[in-house]
Amino acid sequence: MASPVVTSIELSSLPKLTSGKVRDLFEIGSKTLLFATTDRISAYDVIMTNGVPLKGAVLTQMSAHWFRVLTEKVPGLKTHFLTLDLPAVLSPADRDLVRGRSMQVRKLKVFPIEIIVRGYITGSAWKEYQKSGTVHGLPQPAGLQQCSPFPQPIYTPSTKAELGQHDENITPAQAARIVGERYADRIEKLALQVYEVGAAYARERGIIIADTKFEFGLDEETDEIVLIDEVLTPDSSRFWPADGYEAGREQASFDKQPLRDWLTETGLKDKNGVAMTPEIADSTSARYKDAFKRLTGKTLEEALAEL
């Protein structure tokens, strides 16, 4: 990689279509995109001004691993992932910039909601439950403790806000009105199935996936629902070490919760123009790489050497 921290990706060889919180999308052809992942990190929907070393490589390689695992374990699952190989059209400089942090994917119509599955009650779900006994407006059993498992994982979608805006929690019924009844039930069932398979796989490797955020697209030629974006990473999920888990309290974390905690403690939550301390950036990188090794059985460096 050209730099230990990459917060912006501009390619001379391909046109950029869009830039999100973490990823920049480039058009390879009419049906194919280059999904390039920076080291940018966001918390509370605000992007930090500096990045996390090697984060983009972790997210890319971990997502590729999950796409392979999940298509083996979830019958009929379709994903947008094509290959980690770089497009032949890239210039040498462009290849150096995105090697290890990009994948080729299918271009699909994206469903305009965030698909959240929760296996454990924490974060905003715990706060709502304490007030009303509900999560995303759905009644929950009495007596749940902080970070305890739900009796069954639950589907709790949210809106997909514009960059810099906040997603809003909605009910499954509201989500169905957005995506259409034709697809709503299929999305919910598939999200729960993918979460349960992924959570079981991770638990065997010492990680509890407390909750996660998926995105799905539609293959309009086949009318199939397709798993897209990143999947089951420390950016899109809450990862807890299984060996230290105990209900009734906050958990240690492999994800970006320590960054959220730091922002809250320093009064910087929801503020723009914030730079992480080097300690926060480096410790976040170390946690992400630790999770990667536990889930894939190899270090990030070993995975990158195979490319």
TrEMBL record:
Keyword annotations: ATP-binding, Ligase, Nucleotide-binding, Purine biosynthesis
GO molecular function, one term: phosphoribosylaminoimidazolesuccinocarboxamide synthase activity
Pathway: Purine metabolism; IMP biosynthesis via de novo pathway; 5-amino-1-(5-phospho-D-ribosyl)imidazole-4-carboxamide from 5-amino-1-(5-phospho-D-ribosyl)imidazole-4-carboxylate: step 1/2
Database matches in InterPro entries: SAICAR_synt/ADE2_N, SAICAR_synth, SAICAR_synthetase_CS
SUPFAM superfamilies linked to this entry: SAICAR synthase-like (SSF56104)
One CC-aspect GO term: cytoplasm
PROSITE patterns in the cross-refs: SAICAR_SYNTHETASE_1, SAICAR_SYNTHETASE_2
Signal peptide limits: none
KW Ligase (keyword) present: yes
Record domain SAICAR synthetase/ADE2 N-terminal: where: 17-268
Enzyme class: ligase
Entry EC no(s): 6.3.2.6
GO terms classed as biological process: 'de novo' IMP biosynthetic process
Coiled-coil boundaries: none
UniProt family annotation: Belongs to the SAICAR synthetase family.
Entry protein name: Phosphoribosylaminoimidazole-succinocarboxamide synthase
Organism: Lasiosphaeria hispida
Species lineage: Eukaryota, Fungi, Dikarya, Ascomycota, Pezizomycotina
